[in-house]
């Protein structure tokens, strides 16, 4: 039972490089999310997809794009990485979008931008 | 501006004693509150939640208390066990816009 799988686990980029973080869930969840975790800031929502075919901005969307490829997969792209994007990124999913829905998280991607 | 605040970055407690984690929020529209637990190199996992219509919810060793007038909630772990050593995140949302706001987390260390 994999749950939410994120790749890669670690990545080092140079400023200006691009990359895509991949996320897949096998729980048949409708909603998927990308968060970033920074020291002293908690988890902040970057983008979410309430259902297949829809995506919306969260709190901190600047510098990112997302694609909901199908019901299982939700990718996060950094087009031109900046040092401010150094963070730990978590993908999550939930059955549906709602305040009482439990989120299921992947194990995270530690990204460093030099 | 953070709407959910966990003012204690860390907490150290002896095994068998009570751990009390505190969380304050500023948005009076929040009506659902959750706690997530995170081990190193893993993603957060859901621990316990409470709706604003309740003031207490209990699940085994974990109890969450909500004081709406004070905009304050707390998580009690009794008795604390070494496996409880983790980072605990408080989170809140509303039925209005579903956006989940997280606190910065409290690192709990349970000493043997």
Which properties best describe this structure?
heterodimer; A: 114 residues; mainly beta; 4-stranded antiparallel beta sheet; globular; B: 112 residues; 6-stranded mixed beta sheet; 5-stranded antiparallel beta sheet
Brief characterization of the structure:
The complex is a heterodimer of chains A (114) and B (112). Chain A has 114 residues and is mostly beta strands.
How would you describe what is shown here?
- By secondary structure, chain A is mainly β.
- Chain A contains no helices and eleven strands.
- In chain A, strand 7 and strand 8 (74-78) form a beta hairpin.
- Chain A starts with a strand and ends with a strand.
- The mean pLDDT of chain A is 95.
- Chain B is an all-beta fold.
- Chain B contains no helices and eleven strands.
- In chain B, strand 7 and strand 8 form a beta hairpin.
- Chain B is globular and about 45 Å long.
- The mean pLDDT of chain B is 95.
- The interface between A and B is medium-sized, with 22 and 29 residues.
SSE inventory with pairings:
The complex is a heterodimer of chains A (114) and B (112).
Chain A: E1 4-7, E2 10-13, E3 19-25, E4 31-38, E5 42-49, E6 56-57, E7 64-68, E8 74-78, E9 87-94, E10 104-105, E11 109-113
Parallel strand pairs in A: 2-11
Antiparallel strand pairs in A: 1-3, 3-8, 4-5, 4-9, 5-6, 7-8, 9-10, 9-11
Chain B: E1 4-5, E2 10-14, E3 19-25, E4 32-38, E5 45-51, E6 56-59, E7 62-67, E8 72-77, E9 86-93, E10 101-102, E11 106-111
Largest sheet of chain A: 7 strands, mixed
Instruction: Give a count of the beta strands of chain B, DSSP E runs of length 2 or more.
Output: 11
- Can you write the helix and strand succession of chain A as a string? EEEEEEEEEEE
Mean pLDDT of chain A: 95
Mean pLDDT reading of chain B: 95
> Helicity of chain B, in percent?
under 10%
The residue fraction in helices of chain A comes out at under 10%
Please give the largest β-sheet of chain B.
Answer: 6 strands, mixed
Terminal residue distance of chain B: 38 Å
The rounded Rg of chain B comes to: 13 Å
| Main structural class of chain A | mainly beta
Name the largest protein-protein interface in this structure.
A-B, 22 and 29 residues
* Structural class by secondary-structure content of chain B: mainly beta
| Terminal CA distance of chain A | 36 Å
Strand content of chain B: over 45%
What Rg of chain A is obtained from the alpha carbons, in whole angstroms? 13 Å
Number of strands of chain A: 11
| Annotation field: number of helices of chain B | 0
Return the string of H and E elements of chain B. Answer: EEEEEEEEEEE
């Amino acid at each position: 039972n994999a749950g939410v799988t994120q790749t890669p686990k670690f990545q080092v980029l140079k400023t200006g490089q691009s990359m895509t973080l991949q996320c897949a869930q096998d729980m048949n969840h409708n909603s998927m999310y990308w968060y970033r975790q920074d020291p002293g800031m908690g988890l902040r929502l970057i983008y979410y997809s309430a259902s297949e075919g829809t995506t919306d901005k969260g709190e901190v969307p600047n510098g990112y794009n997302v694609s909901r490829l199908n019901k299982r997969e939700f990718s996060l792209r950094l087009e031109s990485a900046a040092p401010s994007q150094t963070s730990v990124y978590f993908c999550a999913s939930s059955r549906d979008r709602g305040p009482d829905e439990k989120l299921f998280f992947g194990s995270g991607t530690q990204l460093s931008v030099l | 501006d953070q709407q959910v605040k966990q003012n204690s970055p860390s907490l150290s407690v002896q095994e068998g004693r009570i751990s009390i984690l505190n969380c304050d929020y500023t948005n009076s529209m929040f009506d659902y509150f959750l706690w997530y637990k995170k081990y190193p190199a893993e993603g957060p996992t859901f621990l316990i939640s409470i709706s604003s219509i309740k003031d207490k919810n209990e699940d085994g060793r974990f109890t969450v208390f909500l004081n709406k007038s004070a905009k304050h909630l707390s998580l009690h772990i009794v008795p604390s066990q070494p496996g409880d050593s983790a980072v605990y995140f408080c989170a809140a949302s509303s039925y209005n816009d579903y956006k989940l706001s997280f606190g910065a987390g409290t690192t709990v260390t349970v000493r043997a």
